[in-house]
Design a protein that fits this description.
It contains four helices and six strands; from the N terminus they run αβββαββααβ. The longest helix is centred in the first third of the chain and has 17 residues. The protein is globular and about 35 Å long. It has one domain: Pnp Oxidase, Chain A. By secondary structure, the protein is an alpha+beta fold. The relative contact order is 0.18.
């Protein structure tokens, strides 16, 4: 599965813009850059994505893939190798990606959908796929 060329070009432009202005022009949704290691290619792959902060200040990303029935490629990559790099406005750090499970997942997923109702729409379109929520835990 590959990304459509228009989405790839859009993401590339977002990455350039984020790095040029430190994320200042990204609008009302908090954006970060997540770099994973390609599970097949072994090459670094950077994806721009929205993030949320948990009540205990963890950085969380949502693998909704806009409600597609399959997980996004970046999520598949971090499952194969959870060592990632995170770029937030004004900072960059190594992290370990940890998908939430159990009550932690249920609590955070409910909170995310309440704050950002479009994720509930993604869930409805996802053909029954549980949409992963991933904590990006600072390494070290």
């Amino acid at each position: 599965m590959t990304m459509p060329p228009d989405l790839l070009a859009h993401n590339k432009q977002l990455i350039i813009q984020f790095r040029a202005d430190g994320g200042a022009s990204m609008g009302n949704r908090p954006l970060l850059l997540l770099t994973t290691l390609g599970r097949r290619s072994g090459q670094k792959r950077t994806s721009p994505m929205m993030y949320v902060r948990s009540d205990d200040d963890r950085v969380l990303v949502i693998a909704s893939n806009n409600g597609a029935p399959a997980d996004p490629l970046w999520y598949r990559n971090l499952i194969a190798d959870p060592h990632v790099t995170v770029e937030l406005p004004g900072q960059e750090f190594a992290a370990t990606a940890e998908p939430l499970t159990g009550a932690d997942y249920d609590r955070e997923w409910a909170r995310i959908k309440e704050k950002f109702p479009f994720f509930a729409d993604h869930e409805l379109r996802s053909a029954g796929r549980q949409i992963p929520v991933v904590a990006l835990n600072r390494a070290g």
